[in-house]
Specification:
Chain lengths: 475, 407, 231
């Protein structure tokens, strides 16, 4: 019955209760949504780390981690390969040769870590091959001699990518629904080659209005984007003997991941090509990337490999990408802290409201204590009322937050305006929020605790009441 | 007026608990909001100082096309008059000439992409001051052929003072650039990102390496008053608008600006949510105060008090509460800010490593008192006014008979 | 049998400056089945005496025996339980929980006492019918007249068959018709179930109904008349 009384008491002063309910609803929605956002972000970052950058585990010669000299290859490579092939948790693994080289074209230069890969194996381990950009070639499908796959950023740095709107592309523009009058306005920039997207953009913006730029800009840029595939890049590097070598590679494909740092630093070539150039034998590799099966646990596998091959360094993705590892570990704590803050702020309003409720019911409370309601029951009654008051807003807030997460998880949230900043740190610019049932349980618990703690002050006030004084009539 | 203030103040203490709780909620909001903003702004300041002030410069004079198409081909000819004019600007602290380009550094078996920075050793002392950052060896002299390496770079390449490295790159208009240099000193750059890849040499040597005679890639400028950055930028642009342009650091390193913006905005959003919650609390308090005293108000209006005066009293009561909470909150957070500024919180362990890996210094300094500090007080003031508006307005419509009958 | 035996009861209130002797060495015996009114002007101490008998207040000295148990020796916590299980209360106002119906107000107290659901239901219906509110069981207090509310209060007080019922000015807020109805009902319950009723009152009509009138003045009993039942 006390539960029933407490629940009904919440609605005695509807206006006052609604103020608290509204604030709790707002706070809970904000907390739930923020949690979903953070989980979604971390999801994507981890996915990229495991499926594109680092895999679940990477094996190296420990000396290589200290000193990326070409000679520090992985010992017992064949034994390791056999072990990994037999291990049930391992889905696939890829052996790689790595070599730091200077890349140069006639118009630009940069340094890259060349990864010599076995194409089929690499495709099983990394999803990079799915991230070739449109019109960006392919991932070693029709190789030719000395093919290389580079990132879009690298292509820009080396001036392999350029922008040019030629006369025979106007039809593509029309197909992309660019209006005739805009096409006419673009006449002055026809057939001029621009080295960077920014230069091209600036020239186009000279002739178009702001509205036209935002409407047709992306289409114009896409049509004018040129990758001079098959263009030549000359690489300079030192081989195993310490001699300086030159070799030109031809661009076969161009990729883009959400991690600019990764993109800027890496390029992929065929293992046989790189091994030959570097003077490495058929069993000399610098790195093995391992992808595990979906339900396999990373740490046990890592420890098993370490045990079997104590002279090999085995690192998991959390160690390889410490930013991701760190946030995954602390994500839960972080989310609950945010919710905790919000609940702390809400508590003030809840306490005040319940205090008022107690103060205006002194006669009633006095009566109850007089007819025999003991302290425990009085406390429970007030505590329950506080918790119910808080829960009403919280339940609605959780529902609302969940709804927003469901909607945005389909459409995705676009942070492009600050997107480059995120990609520069390796985080995706589009987020798909997600939340698990556990969080709702946790949040509910936090809310109940908040209600209970908030009820202490009002309940104490009620218990201090002396029934004799409380029921004293004014006559 | 004085009487109203006295009544309002005394009224506050009629319900001590409620006044205290409401004031406490504002105290919490102020304490947390100022604290959080202080940490955020302090971190940004620190990042900017480390990367911008200690290397890039708040402004850079460049060839018009250099920003969109950075490369040695977009160098511009140097003229001593230009440098003089720039240095003469009232807000320019120092302007130094630079040749910057990318190269591959190699020591036998190891190579790495590095940023070669050709400087005037004497002038650069007032800018990024590599001399002060020297940890081993000696600083560059004007006619030196040697180079300085940043510390993490030297560790990676396993090359120290006295060792040689080969620098290979691309020179002006496709000329090949390659030479071997001896290392005369190691510098530690405060920004971990720069510390990984910097090689200092004299301008003369850079000119020789990249086949640039009499040209620079940039003039880096530090300012006396950074708040006037944009005005200074405009002034300097006028000096040679045709061939050259002046860019500020936000244009030079947009990713940094975006990172700062992103972080700042998310912080502000969180604060907004917090403030709205407190707003509800204040609103609730006003409501309760008024409904509790409705009968009393009825009586006061009946005996002749103006409704407007009652409204004023209630509003002033709320403002007092806001004031108490705000002042106490500010007093409480102030020593933390001072401590955090002169003795900043330094991270350890994994968190520190994560920051370093991202290229940031693992410290969290606070920003000292500035507009953001007092802004919070203004926000609270406005919030209290807003929260009180509707309830107080109802006082103006008070019906005496109904009020006296306990409606 | 003596339900209540009071020996040398004293209650002194002292605040900063003044000492007030509200109950001044009172001896009193109340027997089972009495329908007794304690009367006296304001300040005579009748409310204080009633509060002491009802276990709501602690005396400065003296004993109160209820069926030979000294309730003055009980700790405040035990007193609450004692009141719950042994004493019924009817106050002048604020008797009922506004969010509960008449039925729930009555059954609530039995729930606190831990009775079984079927027993509670049976007794609640029985007692509410007895006080004439069998058809208003699901009404909330704000849907009942003042008199009806007081009858529910009596029903609640009676529901658990307490040793005695304390009624502090139960008719003060009622009109004469409701007062009469209420008093008749209480008298009938007293007669039928033999439950002791102790009133504190100003109201002449209550005094007219009482079987025994105790007059208090300055904390002392100055008159104690028993009136025959047939009057």
């Amino acid at each position: 019955m006390i539960w029933s009384i407490a629940w009904k008491n919440v609605w005695r002063n509807r206006k006052r209760s609604l103020i608290v309910i509204a604030s709790v609803m707002l706070g809970t929605t904000a907390g739930v949504f923020t949690t979903g956002l953070i989980i979604g972000w971390v999801d994507q970052r981890v996915k990229v780390v495991i499926h594109t950058e680092d895999s679940h585990l990477k094996l190296h010669n420990p000396a290589y981690l200290n000193n990326e000299e070409i000679g520090n290859t992985i010992p017992k490579i064949n034994e390791i390969s056999r072990y990994l092939e037999k291990k049930p948790e391992v889905k696939a693994f890829s052996k790689r040769i790595k070599l730091m080289a200077m890349a140069a074209t006639s118009r630009g230069n940069t340094a890259l870590m060349l990864q010599g890969i076995d194409v089929e194996k690499e495709k099983q381990v990394s999803e990079l091959y799915t991230q070739i950009i449109p019109n960006g070639g392919n991932f070693f499908e029709n190789a030719g001699s000395y093919p290389i796959v580079i990132s879009e950023k690298t292509a820009e740095q080396l001036r392999i990518k350029s922008f040019q709107l030629s006369g025979n592309q106007l039809d593509s523009l029309r197909k992309a629904e660019v209006s005739e009058e805009v096409i006419v306005k673009l006449k002055p920039v026809l057939n001029i080659r621009f080295n960077t997207k920014n230069l091209f953009k600036k020239s186009v913006e000279k002739y178009l209005s702001r509205k036209e730029v935002s409407k047709y800009g992306p289409a114009i840029i896409q049509v004018s984007e040129h990758f001079r595939l098959r263009s030549k890049i000359v690489f300079t590097f030192t081989d195993k003997k310490g001699e300086l070598l030159n070799q030109s590679f031809r661009v076969c494909g161009i990729f883009h991941t959400s991690n600019s740092m990764f993109d800027q630093a890496n390029a992929f070539v065929l293992q046989k090509d790189l091994a030959l150039l570097a003077g490495l034998g058929p069993d000399e590799f610098h790195e093995i990337g391992i992808l595990l099966n979906e339900d396999a646990e990373t740490i046990p596998v890592q420890q098993a490999i370490k045990k079997h091959f104590p002279k090999v360094s085995v690192l998991n993705w959390m160690e390889l990408a410490p930013d991701a590892g760190f946030i995954v570990k602390f994500m839960d704590v972080y989310n609950y802290i945010i919710m905790g803050f919000i609940l702390f702020a809400l508590a003030f309003g809840i306490i005040n409201t319940m205090l008022m409720a107690v103060l205006e019911r002194t006669k009633e409370l006095g009566m109850l204590m007089a007819i025999g309601m003991n302290h425990k029951r009085v406390f429970s009654m007030i505590m329950l009322e506080t918790v119910f008051l808080t829960m009403v807003g919280a339940v609605v807030g959780m529902l609302l937050g969940w709804l927003v997460i469901v909607i945005t998880s389909h459409t995705g949230l676009d942070f492009s305006s600050v997107g480059e900043g995120f990609e520069a740190m390796g985080w995706p610019a589009i987020v798909y929020p997600r939340i698990t049932f556990n969080y709702f349980v946790g949040i509910t618990l936090l809310i109940v605790v908040t209600g209970i703690i908030s009820s202490i002050i009002p309940a104490k006030k009620a218990l201090k009441l002396n029934p004799v004084e409380a029921i004293r009539t004014d006559n | 007026m004085k009487k109203i203030l006295k009544i309002a103040w005394r009224n506050l203490w009629r319900n001590r608990r409620r006044t205290s709780i409401t004031a406490a909620s504002i105290f919490f909001a102020i304490f947390f909001a100022i604290g959080m903003r202080s940490f955020q702004l302090g971190s940004y300041d620190h990042m900017i100082k480390q990367i911008i002030e200690s290397y890039t410069g708040y402004l850079q004079v460049q060839n018009k096309d250099y920003l969109d198409d950075p490369g040695i081909d977009n160098a511009f000819p140097v003229s001593p008059e230009l440098l003089k004019k720039i240095n003469a600007d009232p807000n320019v602290k120092v302007a130094v000439p630079r040749i910057e380009s990318f190269a591959l550094a190699s020591t036998g078996n190891l190579s790495k992409g590095v940023m070669v920075s050709g400087i005037s050793p004497e002038q650069e002392r007032q800018m990024s001051d590599p001399a002060q950052k020297l940890v081993r060896g000696r600083y560059l002299k004007t006619d030196d052929r040697e180079v300085l390496l940043s510390e993490r770079l030297s560790k990676y390449l396993k090359a120290g003072v006295g060792d040689s490295i080969v620098l290979m790159g691309q020179g002006y208009q496709g000329a090949s650039a390659a030479n071997i240099y001896s290392i005369c000193g190691i510098v530690k750059m405060p920004s971990p990102d720069l510390d990984n890849k910097l090689v200092y040499m004299t301008l003369t040597q850079a000119e020789a390496l990249f086949s640039l005679s009499g040209q620079l890639t940039s003039i880096a400028i530090n300012l006396k008053n950074t708040d006037e950055m944009k005005e200074t930028q405009k002034r300097l642009s006028a000096l040679d608008g045709e061939n050259l342009s002046v860019k500020n650091w936000e244009e030079l390193i947009p990713t940094l600006k975006q990172q700062i913006q992103g972080d700042s905005q998310s912080g502000l959003l969180f604060l907004a949510v917090l403030y709205i919650i407190i707003f509800f609390g204040v609103f609730g308090t006003v409501q309760m105060m008024i409904s509790e005293r409705w009968r009393e108000f009825g009586m006061m209006v009946a005996i002749g008090m103006k409704r407007g005066q009652l409204a004023a009293i209630v509003t002033i009561e709320m403002l007092f509460i806001g004031f108490i909470g705000t002042v106490l909150g500010m007093l409480a957070i102030a020593p933390c800010i001072i401590l955090g500024h002169y003795n900043p919180f330094t991270m350890t362990g994994n968190m520190a490593q994560m920051y370093i890996d991202m290229g940031f210094d693992p410290v969290m300094p606070t920003a000292l008192f500035d507009s953001y500090f007092f802004l919070q007080g203004v926000v609270i003031f406005l919030m209290v006014i807003l929260a009180s508006y509707l309830p107080v307005r109802s006082i103006m419509k008070l019906n005496v008979t109904k009020a006296l009958h306990g409606n | 049998m003596n339900v209540i035996e009071i020996k040398d009861l004293v209650k002194i209130y002292s605040n900063t400056a003044v000492q007030v002797t509200a109950v001044d060495h009172v001896d009193l015996i109340i027997e089972q089945g009495e329908f007794t009114a304690i009367v006296g002007p304001s300040g005579s101490g009748k409310t204080t005496l009633l509060n002491l008998i009802g276990g709501l207040d602690e005396p400065t000295s003296g004993t109160i025996l209820v069926e030979n148990m000294d309730i003055t020796k009980l700790s405040p916590k035990r007193l609450i339980d004692y009141r719950l299980n042994n004493i019924g209360f009817v106050f002048q106002s604020y008797n009922l929980i506004p969010v509960l119906t008449a039925y729930e107000n009555v059954s609530f107290i039995m729930e606190m006492q831990g009775a079984s659901k079927t027993a509670i239901d049976a007794r609640t219906r029985e007692i509410l019918t007895q006080v004439g509110l069998g058809d208003r069981m699901n009404s909330r207090p704000n849907q009942l007249s003042g008199g009806q509310q007081q009858r529910v209060a009596v029903a609640r007080a009676m529901a658990s068959k307490p040793k005695f019922i304390i009624a502090d000015e139960p008719t003060a807020n009622l009109d004469s018709k409701s007062t009469a109805k209420l008093l008749d009902m209480m008298e009938e319950l007293n007669h039928r179930e033999n439950i002791t009723f102790i009133f504190s009152t100003h109201d002449q009509r209550v005094m007219n109904k009482a079987h025994r009138i105790i007059v208090l003045e300055d904390g002392k009993i100055v008159k104690d008349d028993r009136i025959s039942e047939n009057q």
